Amino acid sequence: MEKEDLLLVKGMQFWAKHGYFPEENTLGQRFVVDVEVSIDMSHTCTTDDLTGSLSYMDVYAIAERVATKEQYRTVQRIAQRIADEIIAAYPIKQVRVTVKKPSVAIGGIVEYSGCSIVREPQKN
C-alpha cells in the first residue's frame, strides 16, 4: 500500500449565483463541495501542531470564497478555481474537488449533477 495522507472536507454547502442560464445567476442555488487533499501530514501527526500546515479551516475558507464571492457559468470552473487556490497556497501532492448541484433543471429527477476534478501542482 502506498503511503498517502488525505485531508478531507466533505459536504460544504453554499448558496451562490453560478450557472449557465440567466435565472441561475439571478436566483442562485445550493452547491455542495467536497475537497480531498493529498498532503504530507507527518509533522502534524507527530507534533499535534497545525502551524504551517493545511487545515480544514483553510480548505473551507478557500471553497467558501470561490463559491460565494466569484461567479462562473459551470461547476467545472468552480472546481478548477478551488483547486488552483489550494495548489497556489500549500505544498500539496494532489487535490480532488467535487462540485455538486442538487437542484438542476434537466427535465428529470436526479440526486445531483456535478463534476469531480483531480489536479497536481506543475513540476518545474
CATH architecture: 2-Layer Sandwich
Oligomeric state of shown chains: single chain
- Whole-number count of domains: 1
Helix content: 25-40%
* Neighbour order of strands in the largest sheet: 1-2-3-4
Q: How much beta, percentage-wise?
A: 25-35%
Please name the CATH topology: GTP Cyclohydrolase I, domain 2
Number of helix segments? 4
GO cellular component, one term: cytoplasm
Function: Catalyzes the conversion of 7,8-dihydroneopterin to 6-hydroxymethyl-7,8-dihydropterin.
Family: Belongs to the DHNA family.
Pathway: Cofactor biosynthesis; tetrahydrofolate biosynthesis; 2-amino-4-hydroxy-6-hydroxymethyl-7,8-dihydropteridine diphosphate from 7,8-dihydroneopterin triphosphate: step 3/4
